[in-house]
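Marked as duplicate of an earlier ticket. Keeping the data here for the record.
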Amino acid sequence: MEWKRLLGGAEENALVGRMAHGLPVTENDRNRLVAGDRDPVSLEGAGYRLFYHNPLDPRRLVFILATDAQG
């Protein structure tokens, strides 16, 4: 199995930016995690991990590790 690492968020990394639209979570402008119909959760001083099918190649999985860089 081959692993690739992508650093930076959608604003810093073009490939991550291309994948972001197909992920089941987003971060809003208030630094809150939005997932489906659930109430947004604050990411202040926190982060999340997610295994999900790669939106650009659904035969592969991606592991997303996001943290509050400001916290």
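See parent ticket for discussion. The chain has a mean pLDDT of 88.
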